[in-house]
């Protein structure tokens, strides 16, 4: 196991959000007010390398804060501006859902209509438009399918591997006929495939391309500058406000993480928007200009599975069950370096919009910080990671110096460092990536001693010994991981495979 177990429900969004170690800041007059709590929160997170992006806060219907922190591009280096447009990733899904809702209101489709009425070549029976909207279709993940079969000899960011659009994915589904993960309505499973197909259904039901439909029926009536972007690798003179995704490498350098061969796909992502665009979207959803009140009520309602369980997803929106009796909807997105988030407390008329373009970060800290400010409560900043500091010392001076620094940092109560299990675990795998296997073993064995109750630490030590080539010791630790936690079947399987070899 690499670092931690993540639920499949959030796999596309677990990659979300932001680390930047050195960058610039651009903000309007709202950010320059003394003792502005939002400014204090985001400026501090930015200074600590925990936020690179744009943010807007709306409270009781009024925009009370907006700020831009960091860079929009790494070549050339360019500072973020408030009007810059970010790739929304899965936050795009709410616009796909809105288009479907409009077409239903126009009488051009029904939610319970079979999707093969629009895409008859699909090899799947009994799946409806509603199943796609609610993520209960059971359709297989198209990303795995395309990685395996679509020009696999080329790198994922090679422009020669780029798909032309949704039609290529549909052709692959028809040709390969991958089985469904479950029958419709039996489970909830986040499905990018479903929202890709919804965009194609918009095309068939409306008689116009998906990007044209949402432009004419959603973006223009709302006076949003958002676009379903026809992806262009590199700088695009037709969209100078476009933000680029990037990542920070282990040595501190920055590399592009903006290009991917399935970028042209529409429906599950693909929309670029600014803070102001999403502010207008938030405001228009309090009216019936785009979709009716009755349709919004249905869109913000959960789905009931065959076993009677209710989901926490409506039409393009997650539903927050933690605030009993209050309407709270939100969505996050993560793709090619971008991490995005929109959170709406509908009854309070509060909204938080986060748009970031670096692939690591602390979404929950930012969201919880703003929610606490809304409710006049103190907030906690995310702890500072020890990973980068320790890695540089270990690589430059050796394991002994790194462990000594770790002990010194733990005794320093003046700085709020994170000493959780995942920190040393992450460091160990980074050292393996750098081919520092002996150092990785030392770090992961220390983590195993500190968190001996965790099966994951045993599995990680096993991976380090396996990377070194010591299969006998690796087998021992994989077996110990399974003995600690019988759900770690993958550890047992690794041990059996090594024994068999």
Written description of the protein model:
There is one protein chain. With 501 residues, the chain is α+β, with helices and mostly antiparallel strands. The chain folds into two domains: 89-374, DD-peptidase/beta-lactamase superfamily (Beta-lactamase, 3-Layer(aba) Sandwich); 384-500, Tetratricopeptide repeat domain (Serine Threonine Protein Phosphatase 5, Tetratricopeptide repeat). It has helices spanning 37-47, 93-105, 129-134, 142-149, 166-176, 192-206, 210-222, 275-284, 293-299, 363-374, 387-397, 399-411, 421-433, 437-450, 455-468, 471-484, 489-500, and strands spanning 25-27, 53-59, 62-69, 71-74, 77-79, 86-87, 227-228, 246-248, 254-256, 271-273, 318-319, 328-335, 338-345, 350-356, 384-385, 417-418. The strands form five sheets. The chain has a seven-stranded antiparallel beta sheet, sandwiched between helices. Strands 6-10-7 form a three-stranded antiparallel beta sheet. A two-stranded antiparallel sheet has the order 4-5. A hairpin with an 8-residue loop joins strand 11 and strand 12 (328-335). Helix 2 (93-105) packs across helix 7. The protein starts with 24 loop residues before the first strand and ends with a helix. The relative contact order is 0.13. Residues 1-33 have low confidence and may be disordered.
Characteristic terms for this protein:
3-stranded antiparallel beta sheet, disordered N terminus, single chain, 39% helix, Beta-lactamase, 17 helices, globular, 7-stranded antiparallel beta sheet, alpha+beta, 501 residues, Serine Threonine Protein Phosphatase 5, Tetratricopeptide repeat
